[in-house]
Design brief:
With about 220 residues, the protein is α+β, with helices and mostly antiparallel strands. It has five helices and 13 strands. A hairpin with a 2-residue loop joins strand 12 and strand 13.
């Protein structure tokens, strides 16, 4: 009985430790955009075209924004494939911009970073300290509170991962991804899915999956 109680206690302590680590690792931003300032960017368009712009990415919804004079405008992305900021490349995921995490051939792992709206609502309605954040037709206002811990300041963010497979974008989950696995690697893929250490939420694990995709 004592051994059982001790095992339960250890399990609980491990769970609390993992939860604490996740909270410490939770991403936040003190600004409503990916970059502190609008930066020179190459906007990639269809048919091999591109244009230069002062651009940034809005964290509320992952949208591409650009400067026109002193106005901040959200880009209409129908004919936009992505955007490059120096060596950092983004590709379109629906209407959002997904950062290219890794590439193999014509296949990509993408990450879309947005404001975690569920947590944001929970913090604001629950009376927790959070910066005031409002976007009304892209007029942005953010005011930091100074009486909160550093790790609790800013907008809570969440990462969602996607694969672009030969031009087709899918969310990173087993049911969607399995349809694209090379037949000769299906058994190995199934074994990987049974590995409890491997996770669909870990970026480094998702990078491994590029090896399972057709190359052409």
């Amino acid at each position: 009985m004592k051994k059982l109680c001790l095992s339960c206690l250890i399990a609980l302590l491990c769970a609390f430790t993992m939860q604490a680590q996740q909270q410490l690792e939770r991403k936040r931003s003190l600004i409503p955009f990916v970059y502190p300032e609008f930066r020179d960017a190459k906007v990639l368009q269809t048919f091999g075209r591109s244009v230069q712009a002062k651009a940034n990415i809005l964290l509320r919804n992952g949208a591409l924004c650009y400067l026109e004079g002193d106005k901040i405008l959200q880009a209409y992305t129908q004919n936009i494939l992505g955007v490059e900021f120096d060596s950092v490349r983004y590709m379109k995921v629906d209407s959002a911009m997904g950062r290219v995490v890794a590439q193999k051939g014509y296949n990509y792992l993408l990450c879309v970073t947005r404001v975690d709206m569920d947590k944001y609502r929970a913090e604001t309605t629950g009376g927790e300290n959070l910066p005031f954040f409002e976007i009304d037709e892209l007029n942005v206002f953010i005011e930091m509170q100074h009486d909160v811990r550093d790790e609790d300041k800013g907008l809570p963010l969440e990462d969602k991962y996607y694969f672009s497979i030969m031009g087709q974008v899918i969310p990173a989950n087993e049911s969607k991804f399995e349809k694209f696995v090379r037949p000769e690697l299906m058994k190995q893929f199934k074994e990987l899915m049974e590995n409890r250490v491997w996770s669909w939420k870990e970026e480094k694990d998702l990078v491994e999956l590029l090896d399972y995709l057709p190359e052409q």
